[in-house]
Specification:
The chain is mainly beta. The chain has a single domain (about 1-230), classed as Jelly Rolls (Sandwich). Helices cover about 0% and strands about 55% of the residues. A hairpin with a 2-residue loop joins β18 and β19 (about 200).
Length: about 230
Amino acid sequence: MIKIFRAQTLGRSNLGWLESWFHFSFADYHDLARIQFGALRVINDDLIQAGKGFDTHGHRDMEIISYVIDGSLTHSDSMGNQRTLTRGQVQYMSAGTGVRHSEYNRGNTPSRLLQMWILPDRSGYAPRYGDHEFEWAARENRWLHLVSPDTGTAPVKIHQDANFYATSLSPGSRTIFEVRPDRQAYLVLIEGTAQINGETLAMRDGLESVGTSLDIASPAGAHLLVIEMAAAN
């Protein structure tokens, strides 16, 4: 079973310095039908203006993953980490028992990123931070494994049975993303367009799949991200 969520139906916020598209309920956008999808609680597609960002604030008991699409993102936190990431790179923070951080666009052009929150498999972990600079070519016409559970093999690991993958498909290419009967997946069409199981998706569209593999064709090229996880009970 698949369900498509068009970009124009997502929650929206425009604060001037920050424009956001919410795939799930967040901030002032509240939809009882769009609270979470399994362990996936948040996908925010954020556009941050140059020189602007999120001031220092706190989180706890959440796995927070940022995927940079355009521009740069500078992270600083109460654990002493400070890093600037650019297109295609991933930052991870397990808030655990509590951490404070800030995120800024220190560049001269707008930054676009996906920020995703995953519920941990239990509360009370010690906070931790990680990031990885993935080569862009590693996702060209193939699925690049970005994030895995602690028991998995991806460079970035989280406290949950969930996997993140990205691909950049060239015009005319096609791929399959397998979703087993006991698993589910959420796909974001980041850039471009694609035909997925016969449906056309455009930039910022989302798609839920429960136990249904995804047949993806890209006549004009597409950049996609998939979060795959255990099916909700």
